[in-house]
Amino acid sequence: MKSIVGTIFGAMLTLALGAGTAAVERVTVTGEVIDTWCYLSEIMFPLGTAHHQCAIWCAAGGIPVGLLDEDERVYIILSIENDSDNVANPTMLEIQSHQVTVEGEVFERDGITYLTIDKLVNDEGVVNRTADAYGIQPFGE
Amino acid sequence: MKKLLLTALIAALFTLPSTADAAQGWGLINEEIVRFDAKVVDVLCELTGNCPDNCGGGKRQLGLIDASGKLIPVFKNAVAFAGGAAELIDFCGKTVTADGLFTTNRETTIFALQFIREAPDGKWRKANRFLNRWAETNGVAVNSNMAKSWFRNDPRVKALIAAQGKIGLGPGVLPVE
Prior knowledge:
The complex is a heterodimer of chains A (about 140) and B (about 180). Chain A is of the alpha+beta class and about 140 residues long. Chain A has one domain (about 20-135). Chain A is built from 5 helices and 5 strands; from the N terminus they run αβααββαββα. Chain B is built from 7 helices and 6 strands, in the order H-E-H-E-E-H-E-E-E-H-H-H-H.
């Protein structure tokens, strides 16, 4: 009986969500705020102090800002502290390359992970000191 | 000299003219040149139901929903260090033909838009509206050196780099040679 109810519920959920609808999960995530294009395309070294200036350029240019967690999972940030303007968002520019802990909701759809941030719980600033090894990306100054 | 050459190379990568209005390869990892029809949507609206008028008026990340229902966020346009929202906002809710590149890395596929037109037979435009808007906002010609190096000349970027430093550890702090 339990399995039948479960099956029916599962079918109803599938119908309710429909194809392509995102799954939602409440999370607390710690990681580095990143420029998603440079990280995922690997057109240059994309992390920490070496990439800080470029990450600000890209965020100001409207490239999606992301959060890279300790398991190397990339979250595309779609809102921050109830501000849903997510193109060149001032707060996202301010915290580029920072190590942060955030609370929010995760949405998975079509192989991409998205994050809406309710609360910036902790901001450690820039802690990933990569510039001594990699210089300033991409132009060296 | 080396820096000038590198700057010219990156600028050329995003600004070389194309007579065919068709995407060119950028040498990315697992790169695929693609052209497909899709509907322009506000990504946050699509995922959460939080839907302002006109896809947020250019202040929200925009994406494409293809014929299979797949949501494809647009990470990049054809301007150095710039994204896709400025290129897509004029087509909010419309079906377009998108021409560009998929690149797949770290088990994630992302899209860079190079050309766009309203489907089925609108006029092709290069995905460089961002630069027009930046030039207009900052009172310079779109073909000026100021605009070509918009990322170094943007007032907000300059203020932030002045405050945080190029490597984010404070004004004037540079890597140890």
